[in-house]
Each structure stands twice: as structure tokens, then as C-alpha cells.
Amino acid sequence: MPVPPPRSGRAAAGAADPEALVRQVLRDPAWRDAWHFLRRHLDRYVEEIVAVTQVPAPTFAEEPRARYVASRLEALGLAVQRDGAGNVWAPWPAPAPAPGPAAAGPVVISAHLDTVFPASTPLAVRRQGRRLYAPGIGDNSASVACLLLLAGALRDAAWTPRVPVVWLFNTGEEGLGNLRGMRAFLDACPVPPAAMLVLDGGLGMLCYRGVGSRRLRVTFTGPGGHSWKDFGQPSAIVAAGCALARLAALEVPATPRTTWNAGRIEGGTSVNTIAPSCRLELDLRSEDAGALAELERAARGALEAAAREEGVAVHVEVVGDRPQGALPAGHPLVELLRAAMRACGVPAHDLPASTDANLPLSRGIPAVTFGIRHGDGAHTLDEYIEQAGLDRGLRLALLALLATVRWAEAGAGAGPVAGPAAEAAPAAVAGAPPPTSAGRVPPRPARDGEAAPPGED
């Protein structure tokens, strides 16, 4: 299926000078007040990162962390929504939309809840100098904490955007989660989003090209038998080994970058049993949908040839399908993020990646993924983030959100849309009923002291 072209909105919005939009935001009292709040609460940000990290959230078992996030949003007075995929989201209270032929699509800012680590993994955060160590702390606990702090800062600033804005904490980004949370959210959107900002990865990462992937579970089955008496009988493990040798001999293009990986293998019964079954899990990726399809065709051919050679059966099941999609490098949303990064002193590194943004990009919805923290060791037990630079990551996230909302207010959400949700009945906020506060902003609390920054799957 061809990827629909990204929506560009009204001509005026598409032609808006990104630098000028960023300058407008930097003069906005909401920016000033929210940034003032964030600077005063950097210690709270670190505490929130630690708290989120220490709540387990394996893919398919994110509920404990989802409940924690929901409670934090409710404490800010937001109308929290849940769905069958385990997502948590909250529409920002906003004025009732002006009458018109269609409701505006929302700006969505998101962070995935799940981690790659099983629930039994020790998650206590260890502090060493200016580093914080714990599994999942960078991917993606810091981003979750960032969104929670942004919500608090904008509540404090009594922010009143003129388009719907949604905070989304989604499930199923990692591994075999297959983007189930993002997929469920977008499928339920009555109006496709005007833009989506995805927080994931290291500070400086800018991703607007989604790497497509196909994940295959391959099962070889044979008759089995005794290693001595039935020597010579077909072996499922030998077939899997032959298949891996054939896969290793495949030539894959360097441009567009295309890769494969055998991530798991299991099978057999005992050391003296001819293996009756063996299972592989393969990850196929490419920046180009055509190259990915060709790689899958070649991989399936290698698997079938190995099965024939050994005399066993083979069954291939697709367990993950991340669609490929991209924005042009000069798309207004990409240029807007570049301008925000320059304003924050963050060098931009354009990196294609496999993130939650793949799905909206594949549906023609403008989306970018960017990072908000420094660190390393993602997907390992020695994962860490640096406390240095957390303030710049917060500043970037705030500026990117406010500038994107300003862009959407200028008309980026209008015009024809792409995707199956386009025919659904419009609503003020995507995928959620109008907030119970009838558009009122929660009251601003007194300020403290007034009386006296690649992640990817």
C-alpha cells in the first residue's frame, strides 16, 4: 500500500517562517511562566524520573505504570482517559471550538510507557556522580516524566491553546508490542491529529523518517527421534542452522539501509534427542518499503529452502509489522523542530529510526520523534542518563510543543486529511469526550516563593 502524502495544511501555515514562530513563542507569557516553573522544579523532575523508572512496565504489562501516570495527571485536574490497549491520555482543557465545517485536529505529544525488561528486573535507581543508572531510565522513563512535568508547568502558566492538545502515554512500543498503543489511539481518533510529537531517544535526535520493520516467528518441525538409534533423521535445529547460514549469505543494500537480525532461537528436547522443533525470531528493517518487501521475500525463500534441504516443515508467522513513512526534510514541522533546537542550543542529528512516529507517518499525519536527555546503555541493565542537560531537554520539549501548537493554530490542521479516520464524525478532541471542565483551565496554584535532553525500539 502506498504511503499517503503528509498533510500540509493551509498554504499560509505551511509557508510560516519557523524561526518567526519560535520567536513568537519566546515572547509569549505562557512560555515565560512555564519555563520559570520548570527551572524552579529541576529537582522535582529528577525525582519524577526516579519514581517513573521504579514502576515496572514490561511490554504487555504496563498497567502499574499506567495507573501511576493516570494518578499524576488527575492530581493536575486533567480528565484522564483509558482504553482497551492500556493507553493513558488526557485532553488539555481548552476553550470550546469555534463553529465551523469541521473540528480542528489535535496536537498530540506522546511518550511510550513500556520497557524491554521483565517485571522481575530490579529497578532501583543508582546515583553515581551526575549519572542516574537503572534499566529503562532513558528509554523511556525520562520522557514520561518530562511530559508529566510539562503538564504541571503549563497548568501553572494557565495556558489556553486555541486548538485541542492531547497528552498521550501509550503502550506497546517496544519489541513485539507492535505499536499497539499508538495504533489503538489513532484508530479511535475521530479527527486525525494536526501534528504529533513523540518523545524518545537522546537529546539532539531528530527523526522524521520511520524505519519500517517486519518481525517473523519461524517454526521448524520434524519427526524427532533418538540421537543414536535414529541418527540421520531430519532435525529442526539443523534446519534452523541452515536457514541462518542462508540468511547470512543474503546481500542487502547499504542504501536504502536495510538490515536483518536473528534475535531469538529456541528448541530441542535434550542433548540426546533429535530436535522435533526449533523456533527463530527474525527482525527485518529498512528505510524503504520496497526494499523491506524484497528482504522479506528473500528471507522467506531462504527459510523454505533450508526446510526442504533438511526435510522438515516450516511455518512463518508475522508477529510485528511497523509501517514505513517519512516527511520531507523541508516539511514545516521538521523545520519548526530544527528552529526550536537551535533556540535551545541543541545540535540536531537527523536519524531514521523505528518509533511510535512510524504509524502516524504511514497515515500521512505529520509526526516527529525527538530526544530530551543524554545517556547510554539503552536496553541493558547498565542504562543511565546524565543529569547534565536535563534542563535543556525540558526547555526543548516545552518550546517544541508551544511552537507546534502555534503552527496548528495558524491552520496546519485544516484541509484534506489522509487515513481511515478521515470519515469519522468530528469531535473537539481526538479519541476522547470533551473535558468535564467544559473548557476551563484548572486554577493556577501559588508559585513557590511568591509569598516570601538514539532511543528507539
UniProtKB/TrEMBL annotation:
Gene3D superfamilies: 3.30.70.360, Zn peptidases. It holds the Pfam family M20_dimer. Residues 414-457 are annotated as: Disordered. Residues 212-309 form the Peptidase M20 dimerisation domain. SUPFAM superfamilies: Bacterial exopeptidase dimerisation domain (SSF55031), Zn-dependent exopeptidases (SSF53187). InterPro entries: Bact_exopeptidase_dim_dom (IPR036264), Peptidase_M20 (IPR002933), Peptidase_M20_dimer (IPR011650), Peptidase_M20A (IPR050072). Keywords: Hydrolase, Metal-binding. One of its GO terms (molecular function) is metal ion binding. Residues 414-431 have a biased composition (Low complexity). PANTHER family: ACETYLORNITHINE DEACETYLASE, PEPTIDASE M20. This is Peptidase M20. The lineage of its organism: Bacteria, Bacillati, Bacillota, Clostridia, Eubacteriales.
